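Q: I'm building a small set of examples for a reading group on sequence design. Run inverse folding on the following structure and report the sequence directly after it, with nothing in between.
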Protein backbone atom coordinates (compact mmCIF):
# COMPACT_ATOMS: atom_id res chain seq x y z
CA UNK A 1 0.00 0.00 0.00
CA UNK A 2 1.47 3.37 -1.00
CA UNK A 3 0.99 6.48 1.06
CA UNK A 4 -0.38 9.41 -0.97
CA UNK A 5 2.19 12.14 -1.51
CA UNK A 6 1.78 15.23 0.64
CA UNK A 7 1.85 18.67 -0.94
CA UNK A 8 5.09 20.53 -0.29
CA UNK A 9 4.96 23.30 2.28
CA UNK A 10 5.51 26.87 1.08
CA UNK A 11 8.66 27.10 3.23
CA UNK A 12 10.23 24.03 1.60
CA UNK A 13 9.29 25.37 -1.82
CA UNK A 14 10.91 28.71 -0.99
CA UNK A 15 14.07 27.05 0.35
CA UNK A 16 14.39 24.91 -2.79
CA UNK A 17 13.68 27.96 -4.98
CA UNK A 18 16.45 29.95 -3.26
CA UNK A 19 18.89 27.06 -3.73
CA UNK A 20 17.90 26.68 -7.39
CA UNK A 21 17.98 30.46 -7.86
CA UNK A 22 21.63 30.52 -6.83
CA UNK A 23 22.39 27.67 -9.23
CA UNK A 24 20.53 29.46 -12.01
CA UNK A 25 22.42 32.67 -11.29
CA UNK A 26 25.71 30.78 -11.60
CA UNK A 27 24.60 29.23 -14.89
CA UNK A 28 23.56 32.65 -16.18
CA UNK A 29 26.97 34.08 -15.26
CA UNK A 30 28.71 31.29 -17.19
CA UNK A 31 26.35 31.87 -20.13
CA UNK A 32 27.11 35.60 -20.20
CA UNK A 33 30.84 34.93 -19.88
CA UNK A 34 30.66 32.54 -22.84
CA UNK A 35 28.67 35.13 -24.79
CA UNK A 36 31.24 37.78 -24.01
CA UNK A 37 34.03 35.44 -25.10
CA UNK A 38 32.29 34.65 -28.42
CA UNK A 39 31.62 38.36 -29.08
CA UNK A 40 35.25 39.23 -28.38
CA UNK A 41 36.62 36.30 -30.39
CA UNK A 42 34.58 37.06 -33.50
CA UNK A 43 34.48 40.83 -32.98
CA UNK A 44 30.70 40.83 -32.93
CA UNK A 45 28.57 43.66 -31.68
CA UNK A 46 26.74 42.94 -28.41
CA UNK A 47 23.09 42.02 -28.85
CA UNK A 48 20.96 42.17 -25.69
CA UNK A 49 18.09 40.27 -27.33
CA UNK A 50 20.33 37.31 -28.12
CA UNK A 51 21.79 37.42 -24.59
CA UNK A 52 18.28 37.45 -23.13
CA UNK A 53 17.32 34.48 -25.29
CA UNK A 54 20.49 32.63 -24.21
CA UNK A 55 19.67 33.28 -20.54
CA UNK A 56 16.09 32.09 -21.02
CA UNK A 57 17.25 28.92 -22.80
CA UNK A 58 19.88 28.24 -20.14
CA UNK A 59 17.21 28.33 -17.44
CA UNK A 60 14.82 26.28 -19.53
CA UNK A 61 17.45 23.59 -20.08
CA UNK A 62 18.34 23.53 -16.37
CA UNK A 63 14.77 23.34 -15.08
CA UNK A 64 13.27 21.48 -18.04
CA UNK A 65 15.83 18.71 -18.03
CA UNK A 66 15.59 18.35 -14.23
CA UNK A 67 11.80 18.24 -14.26
CA UNK A 68 11.56 15.81 -17.18
CA UNK A 69 14.26 13.49 -15.78
CA UNK A 70 13.06 12.64 -12.30
CA UNK A 71 11.07 15.76 -11.45
CA UNK A 72 13.75 17.25 -9.23
CA UNK A 73 16.25 20.07 -9.51
CA UNK A 74 19.22 20.01 -7.16
CA UNK A 75 17.41 22.32 -4.75
CA UNK A 76 14.29 20.18 -4.85
CA UNK A 77 16.37 17.07 -4.25
CA UNK A 78 17.95 18.69 -1.18
CA UNK A 79 14.52 19.46 0.28
CA UNK A 80 12.94 16.12 -0.80
CA UNK A 81 10.53 17.74 -3.26
CA UNK A 82 9.38 16.40 -6.60
CA UNK A 83 7.41 17.91 -9.45
CA UNK A 84 4.72 15.68 -10.93
CA UNK A 85 1.77 16.12 -13.20
CA UNK A 86 -1.58 16.02 -11.41
CA UNK A 87 -2.07 12.42 -12.57
CA UNK A 88 1.20 11.39 -10.91
CA UNK A 89 3.14 10.96 -14.15
CA UNK A 90 6.44 12.69 -14.95
CA UNK A 91 6.45 16.14 -16.53
CA UNK A 92 7.04 16.42 -20.29
CA UNK A 93 8.93 19.15 -22.16
CA UNK A 94 5.91 21.20 -23.36
CA UNK A 95 4.61 21.40 -19.78
CA UNK A 96 8.12 22.19 -18.50
CA UNK A 97 8.41 25.04 -21.03
CA UNK A 98 5.12 26.64 -20.00
CA UNK A 99 5.77 26.12 -16.28
CA UNK A 100 9.29 27.55 -16.48
CA UNK A 101 8.10 30.59 -18.43
CA UNK A 102 5.32 31.34 -15.95
CA UNK A 103 7.55 30.63 -12.95
CA UNK A 104 10.31 32.90 -14.28
CA UNK A 105 7.84 35.72 -14.93
CA UNK A 106 6.41 35.30 -11.44
CA UNK A 107 9.83 35.47 -9.78
CA UNK A 108 10.94 38.45 -11.89
CA UNK A 109 7.80 40.35 -10.85
CA UNK A 110 8.30 39.40 -7.20
CA UNK A 111 11.97 40.40 -7.24
CA UNK A 112 11.22 43.71 -8.99
CA UNK A 113 9.81 44.90 -5.65
CA UNK A 114 13.32 44.55 -4.21
CA UNK A 115 15.23 45.88 -7.21
CA UNK A 116 13.24 48.97 -8.19
CA UNK A 117 13.95 50.95 -4.99
CA UNK A 118 17.67 50.19 -5.36
CA UNK A 119 18.01 51.77 -8.81
CA UNK A 120 20.34 54.76 -8.92
CA UNK A 121 18.62 58.12 -9.42
CA UNK A 122 19.90 58.40 -13.01
CA UNK A 123 18.40 55.05 -13.97
CA UNK A 124 15.29 55.51 -11.83
CA UNK A 125 14.45 58.71 -13.69
CA UNK A 126 14.16 56.68 -16.91
CA UNK A 127 11.65 54.27 -15.31
CA UNK A 128 8.28 55.99 -15.51
CA UNK A 129 5.84 55.29 -12.72
CA UNK A 130 8.53 53.47 -10.70
CA UNK A 131 6.53 53.66 -7.46
CA UNK A 132 3.35 52.44 -9.14
CA UNK A 133 5.22 49.57 -10.77
CA UNK A 134 6.76 48.57 -7.44
CA UNK A 135 3.36 48.73 -5.74
CA UNK A 136 1.80 46.63 -8.51
CA UNK A 137 4.59 44.06 -8.22
CA UNK A 138 4.14 43.96 -4.43
CA UNK A 139 0.38 43.48 -4.81
CA UNK A 140 0.94 40.68 -7.33
CA UNK A 141 3.39 38.96 -4.97
CA UNK A 142 0.99 39.16 -2.02
CA UNK A 143 -1.88 37.74 -4.09
CA UNK A 144 0.33 34.94 -5.48
CA UNK A 145 1.49 33.95 -1.98
CA UNK A 146 -2.08 34.07 -0.61
CA UNK A 147 -3.31 31.85 -3.45
CA UNK A 148 -0.51 29.38 -2.69
CA UNK A 149 -1.37 29.34 1.02
CA UNK A 150 -5.12 29.02 0.44
CA UNK A 151 -4.88 26.24 -2.15
CA UNK A 152 -5.59 22.85 -0.59
CA UNK A 153 -2.74 21.24 -2.52
CA UNK A 154 -0.44 24.25 -2.02
CA UNK A 155 -0.08 24.90 -5.74
CA UNK A 156 1.16 28.15 -7.23
CA UNK A 157 -0.85 29.59 -10.10
CA UNK A 158 1.61 28.14 -12.62
CA UNK A 159 1.13 24.70 -11.05
CA UNK A 160 -2.63 24.98 -11.55
CA UNK A 161 -2.25 26.25 -15.12
CA UNK A 162 0.10 23.39 -16.06
CA UNK A 163 -1.67 20.68 -14.00
CA UNK A 164 1.45 20.01 -11.95
CA UNK A 165 2.15 19.78 -8.24
CA UNK A 166 5.19 19.73 -6.00
CA UNK A 167 5.04 16.93 -3.46
CA UNK A 168 7.09 16.09 -0.39
CA UNK A 169 8.90 12.79 -0.72
CA UNK A 170 9.12 10.46 2.31
CA UNK A 171 12.38 10.16 4.23
CA UNK A 172 14.59 7.24 3.30
CA UNK A 173 14.66 4.80 6.20
Amino acid sequence: MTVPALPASPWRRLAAACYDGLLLLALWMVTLLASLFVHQLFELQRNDHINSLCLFLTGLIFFGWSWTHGGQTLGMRSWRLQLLRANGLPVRWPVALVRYTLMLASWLIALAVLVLPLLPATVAASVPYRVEVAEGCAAYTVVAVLLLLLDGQRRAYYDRLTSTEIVLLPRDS
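The chain is about 65% helix and 5% strand.
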